[in-house]
Amino acid sequence: MPTKAYFDKYPPFPDDIPVAQLTRIHLSKLLANEKTESDAFFSASRKLGFFLLDFEGSEEGEAFLKNAEIMFDINKEVNETDVDEMMKYAYRPPHSLFGYKALGDLKVEDGRPDRFTFYTTSQDDMTDLSKPLSHPPLIESHRAEIKAYFKQAHSIISLVCSHLDFQLHLPPGTFASMQPMTSPSGTGLRMLRYPPQPEGDRRTSLLGHTDIGSLTILFNITGGLQILLPNKDPKDDAGWVYVKPEPGCAIVNLGDAMVEWSGGILRSNMHRVTFAPGEQGKVPRYSLAYLVRPFGDASMKRLAGGGSLIPEAEEGEDNEMNARDWEVYKAIGVRSGRVNASSRGGLPFKSEGEKVGVGVGAN
Ligand SMILES: O=C(O)CCC(=O)C(=O)O
Ligand SMILES: [Fe+2]
């Protein structure tokens, strides 16, 4: 989340509600290759698939926080622009998630409409890898800052990936090579706005899901994000707990691509957004999600072999699709209700070089 100055603009998160216990990982310690921090990061990536990444105390991290604040300012303005104007830039799911999503375009679990809007920019577009997409003037006038944000976020992701390589005994650069900035991908920066909900009619705004891509860096200031605790039923409200936003930190989570590549060792955990708790529920909620997707032609097969700790796939177990086709397949499945999202991965794992033969997707 941005710095304390931005938190001070909002009512406080209540201190008397249960919250998820996320491990706090420090960017500065990952940059310094501290083994205990790397181990803690890996453990959180397997057990919960969510952790807090603290940017304070690192020059790179603090520059990123500053730019995140600029993104929050843009978020507020773009999502508060007149809806008729924004509909000129509407997104086109399932093939493109870039652009504007109007209020209520998606459904929550019980079939009622969602309660949020978003505007998503494409990394390829903003870094000049693809031909420019059309945007409202506000976004056009901030291309330089958005491009800088993509570069900063991608550099952080590459660092996280280098620790995954180390932990899984993969050659350096393996995970980063699945999502370089130089190859076209569906990677985007999503600016989300959740209007306050009327008292007496409060419910889920964004349905429970796992992220399709590899990694997400999420900033928010007010609460509302909830994660499903491991081994809990998504239909049971008691299994969902709020994540408390912390100044100077992002919430980082792993997505389904990581489960595919790691043969189920890494975890992609269900999460959803509901009304913000306490006084925070009375104000609009903004969040900022950098959603990393593998490059379009990337293989979704396991990164097994060559001494890695990832178990080899059994006959027929490997995912034969490339990332582009797999993402469309999954997006259509989720929208049509063919696929019910569930937390995946976090499977048992032997770190002493002895591999365990386990299937992908078991919970
Ligand atoms: O708005 C949030 O806090 C979460 C957004 C999210 O989970 C997503 O866009 O995938
Ligand atoms: Fe998500």
Automatic annotation (TrEMBL):
UniProt-recorded Gene Ontology molecular function terms: metal ion binding; oxidoreductase activity
Residue intervals of the Fe2OG dioxygenase domain: 185-294
InterPro entries xref list: IPNS-like_FE2OG_OXY, IPNS-like_sf, Iron_ascorbate_oxido_reductase, Oxoglu/Fe-dep_dioxygenase_dom
Domain of life: Eukaryota
Alphabetical keyword list: Iron, Metal-binding, Oxidoreductase
Family: Belongs to the iron/ascorbate-dependent oxidoreductase family.
Name of the protein described by the UniProt record: Related to gibberellin 20-oxidase
Native species: Phialocephala subalpina
